[in-house]
Amino acid sequence: MDSLRPASAGTLESSDAYVEIEPSEGGIQIHLESVVLERFGEAIRETVQEVLEELHVADACVRVVDRGALDCVIRARVETAVRRGRGEC
Amino acid sequence: MRRSMLFLPGNNPNMLINGSCLGADAVIFDLEDAVSPAEKDAARILVRNTMRYMDFRGCERIVRVNAVDTPYFAADLEAILPEGPDMLLLPKAGTAAEVQAADAAMTQAEERLGLQKRAALMPLIETALGVENAFAIAACCPRVEALFLGAEDLTADLQCKRTKGGREIEYARTRLVMAARAAGTEVYDTPFTDVNDDEGIEADAALAKALGFSGKSSISPRHVEVINRVFSPSPEEIRYAYEVMDAIAEAKAQGKGAIALHGKMVDAPIVSRAQRTIAMAQALGISREVTA
What is the pTM of this model? Predict the structure, then answer.
């Protein structure tokens, strides 16, 4: 994996998600806050994990504050945070 | 058919995901003015995902990319073209050469990415130079299917105030309609920016239709219904269009040349307008019986 710097993406507006990512050692850690945590928490975690895998991120600490975002929005915010962290944007 | 086109800010998930429910014939995902430079990357990815995962149910998908001379343009094409947009709205189109450069860049990207679908191009005319070059721009390549008037930037360029009455953009409006029609393209009017003025949007849309615009854009979902109504044929217009076509069929059967309807001669332009009206009514699902 390319080196990762701390980065963030998204907002705390309704239907959005705010994502922070920073380098870590020993795999992926996902910290999730969500207004729908009980019902969709697991699905959101899976989505975040999937995007990280697609982008070949093996070690990172990710904090997601979800404000009722759809799957495609969460995907976008995680991808943006990763790309910013890699200095691609 | 694009009676109404609704701008959706490219970095606003709430607007983007609800875009298909707001009644517009087309949505314009905005990567340009609605997005700050620091968020261009985020908006590009968000719009790409929205197009990829959301169903817009017959609503045409247009993307306002960043201008061809900006550092964002190439990345916009890379991200957006694979999602099959119907059209790209190209800001600050001032000359035919700029639009041809955008066309060439799109062709290159489509070939490199192996894309089957070719997105159309709609130059946004929002500078004095663009207005003066409107016909050359409209006719510069087959990918250009429409012109689009942007009055806010234009009035800034003209160093005049933008008013609700719109006298300052009269010349640009008529010039664009003339240029677009001469080149065989469609032409779309600038948004009406006071979202709380219901009478104002109605009058402004009616003026645009009267001048020959194909439809009108909007920055507010509140304006969509009015614009759709103004740019739809009325029951009277549809009824008259069918009467014209009936009269033509009858004259043909009787071997007559010139015919009259309600005391007025029916000639080729009237027939062609009637055909357009009927085609639009059919596209809107309005049957002849409803207007009888």
Answer: 0.93
**Mind spelling out the 3-state secondary structure of B187-255?**
EEECCCCCCCCHHHHHHHHHHHHHHCCCEEEECCHHHHHHHHHHCCCCHHHHHHHHHHHHHHHHHHHCC
Average of pLDDT values for B77-94? 97
Does the ipTM surpass 0.90?
yes
Domain that holds residue B216: 4-230
Partner-chain contact B13 A83, CB within 8 Å: no
Partner residue facing B46 (CB), from A71, A76, A84:
A76
Task: Indicate whether B143 and B15 sit together in one domain.
Answer: yes
CATH number at residue A75: 3.30.230.10
Has residue B111 got a pLDDT over 90?
Answer: yes
How many beta-carbon pairs below 8 A join chains A and B? 48
Chain mean pLDDT for chain B: 94
Which of A72, A77, A83 is the mutation pick for testing B, counting most B CBs within 10 A? Answer: A72
Q: Given A72, A80, A83, which is nearest B53 (Cβ)?
A: A72
Q: Are residues B245 and B222 in the same domain?
A: no
Mean pLDDT of B45-73: 95
How many structural domains is chain A composed of? 1
Residue B224 and residue B254 in one domain: no
Distance from CA of B108 to the nearest CA of A (A): 22
Average pLDDT over residues B62-69: 97
Q: Are residues B165 and B242 located together in one domain of the fold?
A: no
Same domain, B197 and B243: no
Tell me which chain B residues have a C-beta less than 8 angstroms from the C-beta of A12: none
